[in-house]
Amino acid sequence: MALRLAAQLVVVIAMVQSTVTERRILLNEEFDSMERWEHVVTSYRMGENQFQYYTRRPENSFFRDGKLFIKPTLTTDRFGENFLHNGKFNLKKEGCNLAVGGGCVLKADHDIANPIQSAALVTKTKFTFTYGTLEVRAKMPRGDWLWPEISLMPANNVYGDWPKSGYIGLVSVRGNDNFTCRGQSMGNDVMESTLEWGLSEDLNHTRSMTWMSKAQGNVSFSSDFRTYRLEWNPDGLHSFVDDQIVGSIQPPEGGFWGLSGFNNTNQNPWANGTIMAPFDQEFFIAINVAVGGELFQDNCDNYPYPKPWNNSSPDTPMSSFWNKKDEWYPTWSQSSADDSALQVDYVRVYAH
Ligand SMILES: *[C@@H]1O[C@H](CO)[C@@H](O)[C@H](O)[C@H]1NC(C)=O
Ligand SMILES: *[C@@H]1O[C@H](CO)[C@@H](O)[C@H](O)[C@H]1NC(C)=O
Ligand SMILES: *[C@@H]1O[C@H](CO)[C@@H](O)[C@H](O)[C@H]1NC(C)=O
Ligand SMILES: *[C@@H]1O[C@H](CO)[C@@H](O)[C@H](O)[C@H]1NC(C)=O
Ligand SMILES: *[C@@H]1O[C@H](CO)[C@@H](O)[C@H](O)[C@H]1NC(C)=O
Ligand SMILES: *[C@@H]1O[C@H](CO)[C@@H](O)[C@H](O)[C@H]1NC(C)=O
Q1: Domain locations in the chain?
Q2: pTM of this prediction?
Q3: What is the pLDDT of residues 168-214, one digit of tens each?
Q4: Ligand 6: which of 51, 296, 301, 313 to mutate, judged by most atoms within 8 Å of the beta carbon?
Q5: Residues contacting 201, CB < 8 A, separation 6+
């Protein structure tokens, strides 16, 4: 009996030691240089018709006290009010690298020019990995209509363009203090992790899975630094905030194809992949702060001012948003000028 116990103890110790040594670190980003990051520069508004353009200007992304700050500002601070209505700026002058949807020109058309300036940083050509643990300590921005996002994106689109090659959102939070949809808070006390995959952009052929976690007590994800962790293994994905599980998926035998309920098997783009496909390829890290767009649903309640644009009548959403600047802009700096900044203390990746 004693012998068996001793033997079990040895096994336990051996396991602990092996997990420790197996946590080989692949990336330990403390934000002392830009070496591993590049900016996305574009006015493309992404699938959700967001309101920002992305630039590498130093007011929108900078390092301070060993942290990365991504802070949205007003386009008018740079170009003046008139620009929103009549202006035109060629983003190629500052290294535009996403030309889709006219993304290398910032200008007014039937709507005003993108009224917000922000930043998106990616490790696309500098650091990619497949499987492992991604751990990010960060404080989310506070302010109405802000949408920070820390995610993994496919490096090579092996299975095709979005959504075929998938997307893994580690964390995103709506910066609003008081935003509720059908009685549920969707503001800065709720964080989301999301998986996306599918056959084409058309909504009937995209699939997603969103896990949410609500902050406990009188705090939000915008009031404190939290540790967000994704464990990405050859048999599943698991998301955590401060060691509390947010959500988990271990795909069944048919993989994500089997989960999707698509009917025509000869369309399966992941037929030659593993059970995790499309999440079995190289992914890179992306960190950005978006503003507005369809990330904020209609028919929700925002306090004290309602959402100033409609997704369902998308003619001039940016103009509707800008007209109500006096309502939302003050919410970006209620306790300090950096409220609206996403602050990232570190990003670490451990090998599987
Ligand atoms: C949010 O706004 C509602 C009014 O719409 C108010 O009753 C509620 O107390 C507010 N909640 C917070 C946390 O401020
Ligand atoms: C999506 O499916 C719905 C319901 O089956 C259908 O009414 C709609 O036309 C489909 N949309 C597209 C773009 O195929
Ligand atoms: C919650 O925190 C805010 C900001 O720190 C404070 O103004 C408010 O009084 C607190 N509310 C409660 C119920 O403790
Ligand atoms: C698959 O086929 C079933 C039954 O024919 C149908 O109800 C369902 O809408 C189809 N799904 C898709 C995604 O086409
Ligand atoms: C899977 O591999 C086979 C054999 O190489 C190839 O013919 C087929 O097109 C591949 N399918 C996909 C979806 O890539
Ligand atoms: C959004 O649509 C609703 C219903 O059609 C309308 O009452 C409201 O004024 C619209 N809001 C904006 C900002 O366009």
Answers
A1: 25-350
A2: 0.90
A3: 999 999 999 999 999 999 999 999 999 999 999 888 899 999 999 99
A4: 313
A5: 47, 162, 163
